[in-house]
Write a structure and sequence with these properties.
Two copies of one chain form a homodimer.
Chain A: E1 11-22, E2 25-33, E3 42-43, E4 46-48, H1 55-67, E5 73-80, E6 91-99, E7 113-120, H2 131-148, H3 162-173, H4 179-188, E8 192-195, E9 208-211
Parallel strand pairs in A: 1-6
Antiparallel strand pairs in A: 1-2, 1-4, 2-3, 2-7, 5-6, 8-9
The structure holds a DNA duplex.
Chain lengths: 222, 222
DNA sequence: ACAAAAGTGTTGAGAGTACACCCATGC
DNA sequence: GCATGGGTGTACTCTCAACACTTTTGT
């Protein structure tokens, strides 16, 4: 490290790519910017890191301000540090990835934002800054994590059916899986605990399962 | 993002975990700090990010200052942003991972460092700041990358033998592989081009290979 | 001839993939 | 009785792991 002292002309933000599943599609939360060079343009929600909070706490705070939810799955994605990525000055941003169970959140627009909305990842609008690149990273990471860890379960309620689980995998990977093979694979991993069967549906009531491990644990799922 | 303007009391550094293989062991470059609260303590080399350079360029610059090599494999690892990780003030650091071919570098101590030395990863000294945690991340990432990408080849000369390749895998994973199975697996991936066989050794001369793909490309190696 | 690493194939076990029919419920 | 998603087993293929002996060179 240099001894010339600290560099004071540089700001740090966090941006949070918030994924959820709604209407059978993978959606991401975007906000419409109310100010500045990108007024009216959609962007990944985020904000400045305060001096008294860690990066991760800044991300949690922004996430809660935006969605009202706590205790969701949150992981650091990547830090983007090109000199000219923000036209207003030197801003480095650490991007986070959040996975939210769609039942548990409601949108809120914070002060510097005029609107917040869920977009299907297959129909994204033009994005501010280098947010298109960040989104690309987030999608790659999301698939990777679904394939090799238990993060998918963070998008389901505590008790879920095999069909729901398979459904979110099909959405994220944009393809169908064979029901029998999928269930066999999942069961062979010993992740699931069987719960009671009761469910009010107009067809054969499915078994309910719950996750036996921590969310985010490394397990080769597919 | 907030509209309240920029936060100016926060510094950003890069730290680079530089791995190489020497004497049949996985080694990492550490520097002995010459100043400050951690004077005399070993640390991961790094330095402040300048206003005019991207994060990645800062990492490249520090790497070259430390080792004299350019064009090595370099990837961003993680950004550490706890409030109290540096006792001198609020410093966020983005850690990078570098893999260096051991033939191609020479150590240099920069101005704020009294000594630079390669340590075996199995015999690390006490480290400054949160550098132990950073090292843990780096080692995990290194193994992951060896298993699923072609980064290993960045630690070999352009032309190498199957034995050399297997050797670095054995060092990184601290275990032995079966020669026949290893070669079969590698060959089945179609990564290698055969080169001329000549080599002056006091035993049966091995075939030489070169890599047919880009370094860092995703391929399930093991 | 000896030391040192290179080179080479087969077999068995387990995992992944493809594939089709009946079941339980609400309306 | 019909619509809806739930639940179940087998056969084939492919990949992974275990395993030992001969070859080429320099000294």
């Amino acid at each position: 490290m240099s001894s010339q002292g600290y560099n004071n002309s540089l700001s740090v933000t966090v941006d949070i790519v918030i994924f959820t599943i709604r209407e059978g599609e993978l959606k991401v939360l975007l906000v419409k910017r109310a100010l500045d060079p990108f007024k009216g343009v959609w962007a990944i929600p985020g904000g400045f890191v305060r001096n008294s909070e860690s990066l991760e706490n800044a991300a949690k705070r922004e996430l809660e301000e935006e969605t009202g939810v706590k205790n969701v799955y949150l992981e650091q994605l990547y830090t983007f540090g090109d000199v000219k990525r923000d036209p207003r000055g030197r801003v480095i941003t650490t991007a986070y990835l959040a996975l939210v169970n769609s039942d548990s959140f409601s949108l809120r627009a914070s002060t510097d934002v005029s609107e917040a909305k869920l977009f299907s990842v297959s129909e994204l609008p033009k994005l501010a800054f280098d947010h298109r690149e960040i989104m690309g990273y987030a999608l790659k990471r999301l698939k990777w994590k679904f394939e090799y860890t238990t993060v998918a379960f963070s998008m389901l309620p505590k008790e879920f059916t095999m069909g729901q689980l398979q459904g979110i995998y099909e959405v994220v990977f944009s393809r169908e899986f064979d029901k029998r093979n999928f269930a066999k694979k999942i069961r062979s991993l010993g992740l699931l605990k069987e719960e009671k069967v009761k469910r009010e549906v107009s067809y054969r009531p499915p078994k309910l399962y719950s996750l036996n491990k921590k969310i985010g644990e490394i397990v080769e799922i597919l």
